[in-house]
Every structure is written in structure tokens, then in C-alpha cells.
Amino acid sequence: MISDMDARAIVRLLGNTAAVEGGLSDKKRFLMNGLCDLIGADAWLWSLGTWGEPGDPPVYVGIMHGGFDENRFTKLLSIIEHPDNETIVSPWIAEVTRQKKHSTYSLTDLDEAGLFSNSEVADLMEQADIGELFLSGYPVDESSMSAIGVYRASGEALFSRRELKIAHLLFKEIPWLHSAGWSQEMSAKAPKLYPRQRVVLNLMLDGLGRKQIVFEMQLTENTVAGYIKDIYRHFGVSSHAQLMSKFLVGNTYTGGLSTRASGHC
């Protein structure tokens, strides 16, 4: 399904990623930007999906992204937290969380039942200028997964099977990036937050201040201040800087590349 040229491009990107100076976030950004160049994608997201109890839907925190401005990123967070989204992506979630398989699904794969076009999520995606996407999930442990989304703008072509295979094979080869750099406290406590609180948390971890969050979420300052106060109390911190310090951890790695069996693509 992929050519020798594609295989060489994957190996070259993996090698260059491992050689990138800096921490894990630098390597992840290099890898994702390189993948987007390779398959013609516009934007990407990489997060930790975590759940409180077996069978619970995952929540997504610690989000890194590229290609999204603040407005589009805020809308993307609203999509992620929308209750319809859980139903639409449920086949992918089930395969990653219950069967413990590395799985990659396109929007077409996810929407075989036609739920997407009749959902509010479709309107939110239009507002975020997202026309096509695929999701790739990699099991990290019994209560978390590495979750990656790759996106094209509205009006652009669907991802081909070749492009999905390239991404799936690339992500299969980086268990060291999937499993490292996540805060254990984030994994344990984030599922207990309300959806709006998680949106605010992710915007704060992305570096936005209170006034920026007010503007992007179209909420009052008092409402956002209340969410921030709740978040600080929940994680036992008293400032934005302490919150960032608590979760931006494990940003170093000295190991090598390895492989693991994969699932749907």
C-alpha cells in the first residue's frame, strides 16, 4: 500500500526526530510537522487521553498542537468536549482502550452510521475550518492513551488509504514518544473536572491568560476566574506558573526506537 519511497521517508523522519536536540515536546513537534509535510495535512494535535474507571470515556489533557491559531484551537477543544463527539469516535476509543490496540481511523471510518452530518459537531468543525481528519490512538497503560489528531481545512481532499498507512506506521514506531512526558497527576485528576473546566485547563496549559480565555470562550471574566480558581484548588496550586510547572514534566528522553503490534488502519 505504500511505496519504497514512502518507507524511506518514514525511516528518515524517524531518524531525524530521534536526533532533534531538546526535549520530548521538541521531538513531537518535529515529527508532527514532518508528517504534515509528508501527507499534506494542515494541522495536528497530540494529547493524553485518560479515564477514571474502565469503560469510562477518555478525557483529553496536556494538548500540544500545530497549525491552529487560538480561535481555531478553542473551537477544537469545544468539539473534543462535545457529548456527540464521544458517540462519533466510539469505535476508535473502544479499540484503543478495551482491545489495547494502536488504531488509526479517518472521519469516513468513524462516520459509517452517518452520525456526524446530523450532529452539532459538524457545525463546530465548520467554524473551526476543519474539513477532514484522522485520529490515531496508542495505549499507554491501563488508564491512558496517547491520542493524535491530524487535520485538513474545509474543502480539501479526504485522506487516502496510503496517507493513513504512512501515519499509522510512523506512530507505531515511537512508543518512547507515546508513553513519556505525561504527568501522573494529570492522568489521575483531570477526569474529575467538568468539561468547561477542562477546556480552560487546556487553554491555560497552552499559555493563554485569563483575558485571552474570556475572549476565546466568550464568557464573562467572573466565570473564567471561577473556573481558574476551581482548577487551582483541584491541583493544589496557587498560580498559572505553578500549574504549568506541575504538568510540563518529563521533557527529556535518552532511549531509542522500538516497535509494537498495531491494530486498525
Task: List its traits.
Beta-Lactamase; 265 residues; five-stranded antiparallel sheet
CATH architecture level-2 label of the domain at 4-183: 2-Layer Sandwich
Strand order, sheet with most strands: 2-1-5-4-3
The topology string of helices and strands comes to: HHEEHHHEHHEEHHHHHHH
The main pleated sheet reads as: 5 strands, antiparallel
Fraction of residues in helices?
40-55%
Shape: globular
Q: Looking at the chains present, what oligomeric state does this protein adopt?
A: single chain
Q: Can you walk through the features of this model?
A:
- A hairpin with a 2-residue loop joins strand 4 and strand 5.
- Helix 1 runs antiparallel to helix 2, helix 3 runs antiparallel to helix 7 and helix 3 packs antiparallel against helix 11.
- The protein is 51% helix and 15% strand.
- The radius of gyration is 18 Å and the shape is globular.
- It is of the alpha+beta class.
- It is built from 14 helices and five strands.
- The chain has a domain of 180 residues: Beta-Lactamase, CATH 3.30.450.80.
- This is HTH luxR-type domain-containing protein.
Which helices and strands appear, and what pairs or packs with what?
Layout: H1 4-19, H2 24-39, E1 43-50, E2 59-66, H3 70-81, H4 83-88, H5 90-97, E3 103-106, H6 107-110, H7 120-127, E4 132-141, E5 144-152, H8 161-172, H9 175-179, H10 184-189, H11 195-205, H12 210-217, H13 221-235, H14 240-247
Antiparallel strand pairs: 1-2, 1-5, 3-4, 4-5
